[in-house]
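Section 5: illustrative case.
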């Protein structure tokens, strides 16, 4: 006679589990389909075909160097378009991310890489929607899939997929520390991201200037721990990288190249120079201080998430090299603004969101006949200069005008509100009946100090010979 049935066998899977499986199945299928579209479109295009997966070639070569016991920084890939392309990142990045790709044929590796990139961007959209107050699972799932398709159209995403870049994973790691309920582990994502590619260190500075000491300490410890693991698995390469190679930004390419959308690149084009003048560094320092002051200001107005966005823009502006694909960091801001415009029924905010989306979708400098990689610094007229630097110009305007908007938008919250406060009501876990936009939302209960609320809410390489152009990678 058979024994009693296992009571767990008759218990259906929790609704939350089913919803998560459905959500991430939809995101994965959408990501794979979009990766196939990208591969088909860009490999068949004469302009992009020769550029397709140019950076991933370097990454796979770095992974193979790790397996062969060869120094990472002796490996250089010769591109028919860009000339010599060295490996630019810490050794652990190659070990963790690129060694697995060496076990696949390169075509398959590219498809897997871009699919994983788009899944990461889907997660970025999902988290950003939650920060913006979209908490209904079904609505959030649909908006995540739709948002992923729209994010796929952005220029930073397109360039990211064309070259096979890594920044989407870094955005996800950092954003995990700004989501709801990051709690006691907040800072780990920032620290790990900074150890994989140093640019996210700007967020450690942000945590320090906003007085988020516990999260800053966690981020520093996570950074040091990750670097230590790198020394354990690749001591020689780690010593070479952290011992000085990390400061050689010139290895990433020509500062005046038009796809470089940093403030330094814009100045290089304006002054027709590829050599940093001393006063350029002063300008970059002033912009850095201004940007971090804006980040601190909006944080104390009540929005840690907008402080994160201001830190993002500051880092992209002051970095010597901010290629177009680096600007994938603006995806959370665009998602938040779109949701905010809908919640507030604000035509003005919707117009700003559309305008920013256009800036980050169109490659305007092509329309005015500006080259991507000129043989020497360019002589451009004022309109061409503006078209060549749309991203840094937009970022500067956001940093200059953002505090004025925050003061108006968050006027009901005292300027000294701490990290746990929010500027207006959080969307409740059980959605209330729709309210008129004219009715003020009730104030939210501040989150515990150990888990600061993240935001103010509701509201194939060709073999055709080509004359090498300046190195571009990273």
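Designed sequence:
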């Amino acid at each position: 006679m058979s024994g009693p049935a296992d009571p767990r066998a008759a218990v259906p899977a929790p609704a939350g589990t089913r919803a998560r499986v459905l959500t991430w199945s939809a995101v994965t299928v959408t990501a794979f389909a979009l990766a196939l579209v990208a591969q088909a479109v860009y490999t068949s295009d004469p302009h992009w075909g020769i550029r397709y997966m140019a950076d991933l070639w370097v990454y796979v070569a770095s992974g193979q160097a790790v397996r062969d016991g060869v120094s990472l920084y002796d490996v250089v890939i010769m591109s028919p378009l860009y000339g010599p392309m060295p490996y630019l990142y810490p050794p652990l990045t190659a070990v963790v991310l690129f060694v697995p790709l060496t076990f696949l044929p390169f075509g398959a590796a590219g498809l897997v890489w871009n699919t994983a990139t788009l899944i990461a961007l889907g997660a970025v959209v999902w988290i950003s929607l939650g920060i913006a107050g979209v908490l209904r699972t079904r609505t959030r799932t649909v908006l995540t899939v739709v948002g992923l398709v729209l994010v796929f159209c952005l220029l930073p995403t397109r360039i990211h997929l064309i070259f096979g870049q890594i920044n989407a994973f870094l955005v996800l790691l950092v954003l995990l520390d700004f989501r709801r309920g990051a709690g006691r582990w907040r800072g780990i994502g920032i620290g790990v991201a900074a150890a994989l590619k140093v640019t996210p260190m700007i967020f450690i500075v942000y945590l320090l200037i906003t007085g988020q000491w516990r999260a800053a300490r966690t981020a520093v410890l996570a950074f040091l721990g990750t670097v230590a693991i790198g020394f354990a698995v690749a001591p020689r390469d780690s010593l070479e990288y952290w011992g000085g190679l990390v400061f050689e930004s010139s290895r990433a390419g020509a500062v005046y190249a038009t796809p470089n959308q940093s403030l330094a690149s814009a100045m290089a084009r304006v002054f027709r120079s590829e050599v940093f003048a001393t006063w350029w560094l002063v300008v970059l320092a002033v912009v850095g201080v201004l940007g971090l002051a804006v980040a601190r200001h909006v944080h104390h107005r009540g929005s840690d998430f907008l402080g994160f966005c201001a830190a993002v823009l500051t880092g992209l502006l002051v970095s010597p090299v901010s290629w177009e694909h680096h600007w994938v960091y603006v995806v959370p801001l665009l998602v938040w603004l779109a949701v905010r415009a809908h919640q507030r029924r604000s035509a003005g905010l919707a117009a700003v969101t559309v305008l920013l989306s256009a800036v980050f979708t169109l490659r305007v400098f092509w329309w005015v006949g500006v080259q991507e990689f000129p043989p020497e610094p360019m002589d451009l007229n004022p309109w061409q200069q503006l078209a060549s630097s749309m991203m840094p110009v937009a970022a500067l305007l956001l940093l200059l005008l953002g505090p004025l908007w925050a003061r108006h938008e968050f006027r009901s919250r005292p300027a000294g509100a701490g990290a746990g406060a929010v500027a207006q009501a959080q969307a409740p876990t059980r959605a209330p009946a729709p309210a008129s936009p004219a009715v003020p939302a009730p104030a939210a209960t501040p989150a515990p100090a150990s888990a600061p609320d993240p935001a103010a809410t509701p509201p194939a390489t060709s073999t055709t010979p080509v004359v090498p152009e300046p190195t571009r990678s990273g």
